[in-house]
Amino acid sequence: MISSKYLIAVLGMGGAGCAVGPDFQRPDNHLPATWSFAKHPASTAANPAELARWWRRFHDPKLNSLVEQAVTANLDVKQAVARLYQVRAERQAAASSFWPWLNASGSQQDSNSNGSGPASGHSRSYRGGLNAAWELDLFGGNRRNLESANARLAAAAADLDGVRLSMAAEVALAYCQLRSIQDLISVARRNLATQQQSAQITEDRRGAGFASDLDVANAAALVANTKAAIPLLETSLRQTAHAISVLLDKPPEDSLGLLADPRPVPTASSTVPTGIPSDLLRRRPDIRSAEANAHAATARIGVAVADLFPKFSLTGSLTQQSVKLSDWLSPAARASSYGPSFNWALFQGGNLQANIQMQQALRAEAVLAYRKTVLVALQEVEDSMVACANDRKRHASLTEAVSANRIAVDLSLKLYTAGQSDFINVLNAQRSLLQSESELSRSNLALATDLIALYKALGGGW
Q1: What integer pLDDT is reported at residue 345 of this predicted model?
Q2: I need a labelling partner for 108 at 20 to 30 A (CA). Which of 67, 77, 339, 439 fits?
């Protein structure tokens, strides 16, 4: 057997061995100190914890329920969980290289020979044994491999967070779109009722000789055009409900209950805790994933470099062989061997060097992907803040336009009924009211969409 002093000496060599290859360092990003929209209310600094469960800031219990179902039930999320389990198993396999391996084998062999002499006839032999080996990680190849596996596991966990974040945003957006379509249908039906009333007034005035056939035809055309828009909106409404069901891993018709109780588009406070740009490095799942992938690629360079050096192992075997089963455990049937061994790839036609170059190129690609991910993240936050600010201004103007158009519709109809104005003024006023109310409804959706995009860009929730 191997002496304890020899084993301790070898293990000491392995513990003192260095891990070849470069150590990972996060690439420089040269991030700005503040956002360009830092003075806007949407970027007021606040406790980052407020970003967690950001959908609750819309104060809509149904939205909360849908999002919280989606982040666990959605099939994309479940696929990301399965990928995480795969990478976790790969990491466990990488960690197994630090342990010795032990194999057992056994056989029974029967042989027959024809002819004369002592060797003729039937014979049987029994054989069994144990083989063991333990690779000493003197140059850190196994450690670098485990380091790479740990980084890949971190990337997979970040990817899962990213899928959950995207799914929360996608469900919230679909829900807001559904409520917006319901509001657009309400706007169309409300304006249709007003237009039908005007058309009836025109019919009555024509019967009395105060309106022309042209006025009646124009009124009927406006009513028909408004009616024609409603079926398209109802189609979009049901399709959006179907999409929400699929996001929750349910049959398309499962969310049709949302159609029975129309509600307005949910609103949230315009004050969002954006923090500073450097916060994105730890908060955005895609940035954390890209950084972990760059780390894994860096560690794989060390694995490739370690292949240039010899691999040392402690090996041993124990064999029992006999021609009688009763003698199989006797000392005379036993054979053993043990000792150190090494394997060194001295020449492979440049294969090892080419592998190192390939891993270096993969690391360079991963670093560039990380830098691009950071830049895109900065852009998404800045874009969302700009959209929030300008859509709020637009919403305020549309609110004023709707108020003015309602007054114009009322006045134009009164003047027309009194014979003091042409019907064309009624038509123009009613068209403008329908358009401005529809635009205001879409503006409500735009405000919600901007906030959802901003929370997603900030990595809120994960």
Answers
A1: 87
A2: 339
421: CATH: 1.20.1600.10
What single string gives the DSSP state of each residue in 145-163?
HHHHHHHHHHHHHHHHHHH
Tokens representing 38 are: 């830092």
Q: What is the CA radius of gyration of the chain?
A: 37
Q: How many CA atoms lie within 13 A of 109 on its CB side?
A: 10
Residue 322 placed within a domain: no
* Beta-sheet pairing, 101-113 with 311-322: unpaired
User: What residues are paired with 104 via a beta bridge?
Assistant: 130
CA 437 – CA 211 distance, rounded (Å): 28
Model confidence, pTM? 0.86
Q: What percent of the chain has pLDDT over 70?
A: 90
CA distance 431 to 426: 9
pLDDT tens-digit readout, 219-242: 999 999 999 999 999 999 999 999
Q: Which two tokens stand for residue 441?
A: 């409804």
Candidates 375, 336, 391, 382; CA nearest to 35 is: 382
State which amino acid sits at residue 87: V
- Alpha-carbon dihedral sign for residues 397, 174, 241, 257: negative
